[in-house]
Amino acid sequence: VEEESLERMGTGLKELDLVLGGGLVPGSLTLIGGEPGVGKSTLVLEVSRYLTQANKKVLYISGEESPSQIRMRAERMGFRSSNLLLTSETYAENISAMIEGARPTAVFVDSIQTIAREALPNQAGTVTQLRECTQILLETAKRSGIPILMTGHITKEGTIAGPKILEHLVDTVL
Known about the structure:
- The structure is a single chain.
- This protein has about 170 residues and is α/β, with parallel strands linked by helices.
- It has a single domain (about 15-174), classed as Rossmann fold (3-Layer(aba) Sandwich), CATH 3.40.50.
- It has 6 helices and 6 strands, in the order H-E-H-E-H-E-H-E-H-E-H-E.
- The chain has a 6-stranded parallel β-sheet, sandwiched between helices.
- Strand 4, helix 5 (about 125-145) and strand 5 (about 150-155) form a beta-alpha-beta unit.
- Helix 4 runs parallel beside helix 5 (about 125-145).
């Protein structure tokens, strides 16, 4: 078996790069879990700032805030960039098509619990929706070679909200 060497993409955050083994892996799906208000969205926006300042295109998908809210937060953090593509799209199939069309350097999904498959009757955040949407994002990451980092909520017990399979589908859980 030949070992494949993948060039990792630095995030601009030394500690995050350390726990990621040097940065984001092309084609990987990473899940960052945490309680509401702990700073998951801010962390993702900080990585977006670093990448866009390095002239890399970032697709930021938020089911929790509107693009104008994210842009205002970014401006408060001191950055504005035409390389930051913002959307509040929440259908997994449409997100996959956007990734394939825009070909960004990295994709951030905030949060997986807000994403749904249009064809399924269940609400976003249900076990079926989480499993199906994570699978679509995983396939998109692998096919495109673009790293996708998604945030996820945790329960009162401290576990990722949703089915245990969610943690098994992704490449990395933080």
